[in-house]
Design goal:
The protein is α/β, with parallel strands linked by helices and 222 residues long. It contains 7 helices and 9 strands; from the N terminus they run E-E-H-E-H-H-E-E-E-E-H-E-H-H-E-H. The strands form 2 sheets. It has a 6-stranded mixed β-sheet with strand order 4-9-8-5-6-7. Strands 2-1-3 form a 3-stranded antiparallel β-sheet, with helices on both faces. Helix 4 crosses helix 5.
């Protein structure tokens, strides 16, 4: 039986980060006094844990274990569409966006806290499209929040196309699959599989660029 992939978070070590290879991860803690690290079964869980400090992760894990079942958050029916008339929940939401140098071209996406613009995750690909990036950013945000046990935290996106793709659990891109896009398509496959296997409960709102300006996750390349 094939060995399951693990993801290793190094909070405190020679080079903190998320690693997929234990030997590389081990080099970051060998000889480092007080190193803080842990393995996770999925990348989303690892990145969610790494986004927090080690202290915050341990506290959240302890709280979750000790929380009575009747006090744990219950999934709600997902809400999608237009955002409220003003972004009144800026301090408690995530914003996502993508950028592409040429379309198709070098593509990247990120997710940030809507208030403060703290980067929570980021991915880059040698070849992609803006719509694909917007789609992957949304799914990454959903998986990130699921790993954080935050089923109700809103997500903002300025792409109605990506919101529609997420709703249908299908990335309807016309970008050809081939040697140059195989790595990207592996992420698309994983994103579609995640959407089909998980119930989306987080509200997804369309960012009102005309009223509020550029979305906080914008790369500023316009």
């Amino acid at each position: 039986m094939a060995k399951k992939q693990k993801f290793y978070v190094i909070w405190l070590g020679h080079e903190p980060g998320v690693y997929t290879d234990w030997n590389k991860a081990k080099r970051q803690i060998d000889g480092y006094k007080g190193a803080k690290y842990k393995s996770f079964p999925t990348r989303a869980q690892a990145e969610a844990a790494y986004a927090n400090s080690f202290h915050n992760y341990i506290k959240a894990a302890s709280d979750a274990v000790n929380r009575p079942a009747h006090l744990r958050p219950r999934p709600k029916t997902p809400r999608r569409g237009n955002a409220p008339s003003t972004p009144t929940i800026l301090s408690q939401s995530i914003s996502v966006d993508a950028a592409c140098s040429g379309n198709p071209g070098k593509m990247e996406y990120q997710g940030v806290t809507t208030s403060g613009k703290k980067q929570l995750f980021h991915r880059a690909f040698k070849l992609g499209t803006n719509n694909i990036g917007e789609f992957l950013a949304l799914v990454h945000a959903l998986a990130f929040l699921a790993a954080q046990d935050m089923p109700d935290l809103p997500i903002y996106s300025d792409s109605q196309i990506a919101i529609g793709w997420v709703k249908k659990a299908k990335c309807k891109t016309t970008l050809a699959r081939g040697p140059k896009t195989e790595g990207l398509y592996e992420y698309i496959d994983r994103a579609e599989a995640w959407l089909k296997a998980n119930k989306v409960t987080n509200p997804i709102y369309k960012w009102d660029t005309k009223a509020w300006g550029e979305i906080p996750a914008d790369f500023g390349r316009k």
